Amino acid sequence: MKKRGKSTESVHAGKIECGRVAPVSSPIFQTSTYYYPKEGSAGYVYTRLGNPTQEVAEDKIAALEGAQEGLVFSSGMAAITTTIVSLLDKGDHLIATEDLYGNTYTFLRNELKRTGIELSLIKSENAKHIERYFRKNTRGIFLETPTNPLLKVIDIKHLAGATHKKNIKIMVDNTFATPINQRPLELGADVVIHSGSKYLNGHSDVIAGLVAGKKGDMEIIEEMRTTLGGSLDPHAAFLLQRGMMTLAVRMQRHNENGSKVAEFLEGHKKVNRVNYPGLKSHPSHELAEEMMDGFGGMLSFEVKERRKDANKFLKSLKLLLAAPSLGGVETLISIPAETSHSYLSRKERLGQGIKDNLIRVSVGIEDFVDIKKDLNQALAKV
Ligand SMILES: Cc1ncc(COP(=O)(O)O)c(C=O)c1O
Predict the structure, then answer these.
(1) What's the CA-to-centroid distance between 296 and ligand 1, angstroms?
(2) CB-neighbour burial class of residue 68 (10 A; exposed 0-12, middle 13-18, buried 19+)
(3) Is 1 domain-assigned?
(4) Of 244, 278, 298, which closes a domain?
(5) Residue 169 and residue 226 in one domain
(6) All residues at 6 or more sequence positions from 129 whose CB lies less than 8 Å from its CB, including other chains
(7) What pLDDT does 1 receive?
(8) pTM for the full model?
(9) Can you list the residues of the chain whose pLDDT is less than 70?
(10) Alpha helices in 107-233 (DSSP H)
(11) Do 30 and 53 share a structural domain?
(12) 3-class secondary structure, 155
């Protein structure tokens, strides 16, 4: 059968068969448990193990990422931690790039040792020489691309080439790009992970996580989800799948606005540097063009020189919201040194290239003229 387009999959993948009643919208199976049928098996036992509303979002992520199966979780962090402890065992070695979402980094750095899994944290730039970090017991590579907050781009195809015929799982957090802009499994990754709290839901009103990959891996991860308990509430699953239906059109607008805002900021005299993979000045622009269908709505820039300039800019915004998180319809702006990366010491942050005056923008789907006007007036106050 001919593959369907991403917009079509967003809308139609994952339908609940209800027999005589045929609702167009997915029903919310708001139940914790299921009664035993008099004959045969109903297929559902208890919602921590599975629920039809969860499965709608699971089918959508599998279709969008080109995976055999998908799973939903109670948060992006539940998806990440459950996946890592499912696919690696005591005595195995994991390589992770250090440009990661804060709690992912703290999980790896502070908690992973409890499981007996060895860890090497490497600079994203060094993923080019990934073989140098291989040990006999290396069984996993975990990365984000584009990275947070500097939008560095890591070559997934290269990693897949290096791990070919080795028993090493490549796990990619694809939250920033979404499957509309980048499909890591097509590039050779084994498992793709999302914080569904971001673009997939898209309306800043749900905390959720998703994982997609091959059947065998997903079965192991599903079993661990049942044991660790990070399954998604049916109502949240409903909101997640509803958001996913408009993912493709929202991403189109995020891509357009992201590019326009990046170009506007790059030409502004109070801005020192803009990090956006769609800009020709981005060090990995060509690689991003190869791997991505669009460059997304995430970017960061340095305003003037100091933290006080960044704070002044944030306080001067009138329309755009100073808030953490990303991927919603509204533009959200934050200072990584004070929010997503405050868990690092200043020295560690500067070592990663995250300066005090760095500002991260999750460009929303508002009219570009209004976004530009607000950015311009706030920059004028700096
Ligand atoms: C790239 C990335 N991955 C994972 C997470 C964690 O997701 P959640 O907040 O849904 O647990 C976040 C949250 O900000 C994120 O930005």
Answers:
(1) 16
(2) middle
(3) no
(4) 244
(5) yes
(6) none
(7) 52
(8) 0.97
(9) 1-2
(10) 156-163, 178-181, 215-228
(11) yes
(12) coil
For residue 52, say if its preceding peptide bond is cis, omega within 30 degrees of 0.
no
Regarding whether 72 and 28 lie in a shared domain, the answer is: yes
Q: Which tens digits make up the pLDDT trace of 250-282?
A: 999 999 999 999 999 999 999 999 999 999 999
CATH code of residue 206? 3.40.640.10
CA of 37 to the centre of ligand 1 (A): 39
Ligand 1, atom 2, lies closest to the CA of 101
108 lies in which domain range?
A: 6-244
Tell me the one-letter amino acid at 253.
Answer: R
Question: Contact 278/295 with Cβ under 8 angstroms?
Answer: yes
Q: Residues with beta carbon inside 6 Å of ligand 1? A: 75-77, 101, 104, 144, 148, 173, 175-176, 195, 197, 207, 209, 325
Per residue in 158-217, pLDDT tens? 999 999 999 999 999 999 999 999 999 999 999 999 999 999 999 999 999 999 999 999
The encoded tokens of residue 44 equal 């559902």
Ligand 1: centre distance to CA 126 (Å):
23
Residues 238 and 251 in one domain: no
Contacts of 238 (CB under 8 A, 6+ apart): 26, 28, 53, 56
C-alpha 8/C-alpha 264 separation (Å) is 33
Q: Which residues contact 335 (CB under 8 A, 6 or more apart)?
A: 307, 310, 311, 314, 356, 358, 359, 360
Kindly report the CATH number assigned to the domain that includes residue 364: 3.90.1150.10
Cα of 100 to ligand 1 centre, how many Å?
A: 9
Q: Please, which residues have CB within 8 angstroms of residue 182's CB and are 6 or more apart in sequence?
A: 145, 174, 291, 292, 293
